[in-house]
Structure formats: structure tokens, C-alpha cells
Design a protein that fits this description.
Helix 5 packs parallel to helix 6 and helix 10 crosses helix 11. The chain is globular. It has one domain: TIM Barrel (Alpha-Beta Barrel). By secondary structure, the chain is an alpha/beta fold. The protein is built from eleven helices and ten strands. 37% of the residues are buried. The protein starts with a helix and ends with a helix. Helix 5 links the parallel strand 6 and strand 7. The strands form two sheets. An eight-stranded parallel barrel has the order 1-2-5-6-7-8-9-10, surrounded by five helices. It has a two-stranded antiparallel ribbon with strand order 3-4.
Length: 317
């Protein structure tokens, strides 16, 4: 079932999660170890992230350095299919601009269509560590809106190769990302909302937000979206803070702010175990407040730790 259909049919707030593919060389059992306990809470859909290639330099016998491309977390398409087969739960593979040509994107979408996967979350993706800023593939897309347009075209039976005849259209439901505290590269919120609306106008059907820790920022974001003319469902993304280090790395990595009250609670903690308990409590209260606000779904970023998500879900759902 499509994500948008789950949202339309729901009588209350749904539950969903995002998982990471395991590191290369690990088995699919590492995914089951995360998802088996989460199944107790009947997730409506499961997002699976995509991780593009990175580059390393290895010294050759002649002393020169040679550049190698590596992919640390492959398997997004296969994991999505395996989840559907094992749990009978809809999956949402992420599709990104970086590292893909338009033809490679089309081939990935065809594979997904053959597997009966009819949801995608379309993202530009981040710059890799060796790049100061995002650099698209020479024959790829620069922005998420270009991905949206390509998928919409496939849904209409329009492929990159325009000489194809008697083609079958795809049937994807398209999600995109939203940023309650604006994208780090956007000059201001007004500009960010303009580009978000362009993705919706191009054919995206729902929005999933970046993580946030102040519900007021999500509520303000929703109100600003509605004032801009964005009417699609806006799903809040949540992640409990579990270590003191995360109180520094998460704001820096995701360009978000932490409320004073949350930081005060973290600073009182003497161990990361206490931080985890405080972070779970904060996320539980966030979740309950968002349900009262009437959000269509609560989407949790597991970041490889299903136990934390379960600890929140047991007190919310």
C-alpha cells in the first residue's frame, strides 16, 4: 500500500520507523534484530536509507596514491524487498541524487517497480566527506525536485529513453524531506519553503521532517507550510538523544537547535545511561504532545538502535 493511502485511511496517529542498511559484510540478521521487537507496534511503513559511495586513497607499490570508490552500506533495494517478504510491511526506499546518473536512477526505480515497491522518498543527499559541497553526478540530478520530476514522468510512462514504445507506467507514491528549522544551505525559511512547495507542486505527496526537539518549531513549520499553500501531510521525524556526545554532534550534523530545558536535563546527567533515560522521556513527551496536535504519523529515526525506539513506543502507542 502507498504511504499516502495509509495516511488517508488512518483513524489516528500512525507509527513508522527509518532504519539504516547494515555495514558491508554484515548479514540481514542485523536488520531483523532491530525490527523484530519493533513489529510489536505495527509500523505502517519502514523507510530504508541509501548511502552513496565514498572515496579512499590507497598507496600503490610505486608510492603513488590510487583513488578507490567504496560503499559502506549497500543493499537498500534488497532490504526493502526482504522486509516486505518477512513482515508484510510496506517499505520506503530512499533515492538520492548523489552518485547516480539519470539512467541509473531509472534502472533502480524499475527494479523497485518489479519488486512491487510503490513508495520512494526522494532526497538530494549530502556531500561526501571528501567534498566541500555537494557535487552531482555528471549525468545525474542536482536537486531533489529533479528526482521528483523523473519519478512523476515514469508514473506517466515517460522514460529517459524517449524512443521506447508501448511502455508501462510506474505507480510510485513520492515523499520528500522538510526542515522545521530550515535546510542548512537555505538562506532563510521563506526560501526553503518556496523550494519545498515546488517539490509538492511537481508531484510529491507527503513530507517527512528532519528531526527536531522543540515541538513549537514543527507546529510553526506546519502553519507556515499551510500559509504557503502546501496541503499534503507533514510527518514529524523524531529521535531520542542517548549520549552527551549527541547533544553536540546532532545539532552540528543536522543544523538543529536543542531547547534549553533539554540541555539542562542532559547536563544534570552523570552517565550516558542517565542521558538515555532523559532523552527517552523527552521524546515520549514530544510524541504525546504531537499526537494531541493531530499529526498523521510519528516517524522515528532508529539510527541502528531499535531498542530505543521500542522504549518510546511502549509509552506512546
Amino acid at each position: 500500500m502507498k504511504v499516502i493511502d495509509h495516511l488517508k485511511r488512518a483513524s489516528g496517529t500512525l507509527f513508522s520507523v527509518e532504519i539504516l542498511p547494515p555495514l558491508k559484510g554484515k548479514s540481514v540478521q542485523s536488520i531483523w534484530d532491530i525490527l523484530d521487537p519493533i513489529m510489536e507496534f505495527n509500523p505502517s511503513f519502514i523507510d530504508v536509507t541509501y548511502h552513496r559511495e565514498e572515496y579512499v586513497y590507497k598507496k600503490r607499490e610505486n608510492g603513488l596514491l590510487e583513488k578507490f570508490s567504496i560503499r559502506k552500506r549497500p543493499g537498500t533495494v534488497g532490504i526493502c524487498s526482504a522486509i516486505i517478504n518477512k513482515y508484510k510491511v510496506d517499505t520506503v526506499p530512499h533515492i538520492i541524487c548523489g552518485g547516480f546518473s539519470k539512467e541509473e536512477t531509472e534502472n533502480a526505480l524499475i527494479d523497485l517497480s518489479f519488486l512491487g515497491i510503490d513508495n520512494v522518498l526522494l532526497l538530494r543527499g549530502d556531500a561526501i566527506k571528501s567534498e566541500a559541497q555537494f557535487i552531482p553526478d555528471a549525468n545525474g540530478h542536482h536537486y531533489a525536485i529533479n528526482l521528483v520530476k523523473q519519478v512523476v514522468n515514469m508514473n506517466r510512462g515517460i522514460y529517459v529513453d524517449d524512443e521506447l514504445h508501448e511502455v508501462s507506467p510506474s505507480n510510485f507514491c513520492i515523499g520528500v524531506a522538510g526542515y522545521p528549522e530550515k535546510h542548512s544551505e537555505a538562506p532563510n525559511m521563506k526560501s526553503d519553503l518556496k523550494y519545498l512547495k515546488a517539490k509538492i507542486d511537481a508531484g510529491a505527496e507527503y513530507i517527512v521532517t528532519q528531526m527536531f526537539y522543540d515541538n513549537r518549531k514543527y507546529i510553526d513549520f506546519v502553519n507556515q507550510c499551510r500559509e504557503t499553500g502546501i496541503t499534503v501531510p507533514i510527518i514529524p521525524g523524531l529521535k531520542p538523544i542517548t549520549t552527551k556526545k549527541q547533544s553536540i554532534t546532532l545539532p552540528k550534523t543536522f543544523s538543529i537547535d536543542l531547547p534549553d530545558d533539554l540541555l539542562d536535563e542532559i547536563e544534570k546527567c552523570k552517565t550516558d545511561k542517565e542521558v538515555k533515560e532523559a532523552g527517552i522521556e523527552w521524546c515520549v513527551q514530544q510524541s504525546k504532545e504531537l499526537i494531541q496536535f493531530g499529526v498523521p504519523c510519528l516517524h522515528y529515526y532508529t539510527m541502528g538502535n531499535g531498542e530505543i525506539t521500542c522504549s518510546v513506543a511502549r509509552r506512546v502507542f
